[in-house]
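SECTION: protein entry
WANTED: fold as tokens:
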Amino acid sequence: MIKDPRSTAAALLPLVGGPANVTSVAHCMTRLRLGLADRSRVDDDALRALPGVLGVVEDGESYQVVLGPGVVGRVTEAFEALLAAEEAGTADDAPDGTADALARRGAELKARQQARNATPLKTALRRVADIFVPLIPALIGCGIVAGLAGLLTNLRWLPGLTPALTALSAAFMALIAVFVGHNTAKEFGGTPVLGGAVAAVVVYPGVAKVTAFGAALAPGQGGVLGALAAALLATRVEKWCRARLPGTLDVLLTPTLTVLVSGLVTLYVLMYTAGEIATAIGTAANWLLTTTGALAGLILGGLFLPLVMLGLHQALIPIHTTLIEQQGHTVLLPILAMAGAGQVGAAAAVYIRLRHDTSLRTTIRSALPAGLLGVGEPLIYGVSLPLGRPFLTACAGGAAGGAFVGLFAMLGTDVGATAIGPSGWALFPLLAGGGGWAVTAGVYGGGLLTGYAAGFLATYFFGLPDGAARPVCDPEKHEPRPADRPGPRPASPR
């Protein structure tokens, strides 16, 4: 447990190469994400041994220190304050131009490192995540408000308040295309407001008067996929114009041509095409679960942790968002959340088996509450992945939980989530399904318990090598026990 974020930040800074080696600082829900000028200056072993650090990860774009939810934000703030203080002192003491030269050198080294490590697929997925992840807080908030409105409607309580809650929850989803367009243009180097303006065409009610491919368009047709494509096109058109028009004409013609050209293409091509793709995604998801639900749940729940490790789970964000926009909930997220349940069960088994490893047990105690709420990275990078086998048995637990939820989907009880981001027990307020909230929550809860149990049993019996549970010291003589010494564990003194 990190009690003093400033002391933790002060301990981290020299281990990542000092202030001159840090080119950028950011954080997500659990990780401190650092851009580094020279990766070789990082002391990985010392970082992993630092109290409160649950693991380190490198994705080619940034060096990530796993600190856990709640903690990471405070440590990041303290880390940035230390960097600012160091930079101010360096600027006062250094000769003119030294700071700028170091900054340029750091940027060049970072660019070369990214060019070596980044693949086109990982870069594309990172950009997709950068577009949609900022929308998650609004999706969560509106999803919970929508659930509250549905509960009040079913109970027939506060009928005067229910329409207001419905309006609050539905407004964001009605305009989500605008936010997607804004973020897309920003991510790809365009003017954000132009991306949002072109994407707004997708949700404008007046498009019902426009005919494309022989049929009238419907407001919202194409959804977030249409908005994403529209903003990408707008960015390309804008860059083309700015590269060719003189400054006096650029101010007037570039925004006009961007909106006109990309807007018309969006109306007559992209909305229809994206609408067909979105419909196919919804149809495929429903068919997959109603026809092969148990098998699909087994595969999805079992493979999600490896997908997270490879960063490929980011490709699912637009699919989740499309399903939420189209059907009101995503049926994939509750199944994928079972991977976290398997992780929790595996960690509990490790905690019981490795009674002698006080450091690891302390890590599990601090990370387990977050794991129950669906934040699995502290357990992954602090427990199961370093041990090896428990990561595989955690996947087995996720597969069992996914199969449980998928089986009920085959039987007609679908389980969905009205927002993305939370999982574990934090997903209960966001559950939705055709059988009502109580039935949906019962199936989802049963899946969690199945994942916990399967992950625990698989890890307890198969997830640790023989002898891993033995103490590192002989309890009779208090001397180190050789790792390869044969024979049973001696009885504890009475």
